[in-house]
Predict the 3D structure of the following.
Amino acid sequence: MIMSWILAFRLKTLTAAFVPILVATALVYFEQGSLNYKLSLLALLSAVFIQIATNLFNDAIDFKKGADSNTRVGPKRVTQSGLIGQKSVFMAGFIFCILAAVCGLPLVIVGGTPILILGLISLAMGYLYTGGPYPLAYKGLGDLFVILFFGLAAVCGTYFIHTGGVSLASVIAGLQIGFLSTVLIAINNLRDSKEDQKVNKLTLAVRFGATFTRIEVLFLYLFTFLLCIYWFLNNAQPAVYLCLITLPMALMLIKKLWVTEPGPVYNSYLARAALIHLVYGVLFSIGLIL
């Protein structure tokens, strides 16, 4: 049972919560030379718990709507495979929302109303991503959601609790990390496009096709690296040089996506995208600290 819950948490996806907090923390240190590590730790725990809650809601809701079936190409889902009941998965999702709120309370005390609003919206979106009357993932808004919440909101929110404001630098960093996170969603949706179409899950890959999604991935990576110019012009050259290490990895992944039709092999491509996201975030953070 423990292994089933670990599978439900989708540990490999948690880098999407870890990386923006790390980058924002490094940016604060780059600008101020010091920071409150406790605030970053609480922000990380809150983000991870929201990510786990989102994964659990997604697992249960996609099964209920038929998006996850026995013909699924992607990794096993606990509700679809019968390892854990749908109600139990749902309840666990709400429990992790509560844990996220508990960790976020000290952040609200420090950051005030803006952080309270951001936290409440983030908690709600964990469910509304696939649930509710207008599920974002089923309306082609999942990509925008990831840019906003796993990029801008996470980076700028963490930056805000340390500094009391939002800077252009935090927005640029938020966009870069958000773009890299969105690559994962794009590849995931391209892999699942045939199954999603059957249940009217209208992701961008379903709405506009494989070529559009491949171009989307290309532009997400392109703008991520083009925005490095900002850091080069603002005395963060070490961060730029380190980030460029991931460029060949991104180019290789783009090539693979263009020459390979969606199928089980896309699971490995998704893992590569996650690795690029993680390595880029870590190297970028090291470069800022240096």
Q: What stands out?
A: The chain has a mean pLDDT of 90. The chain is about 75% helix and 0% strand.
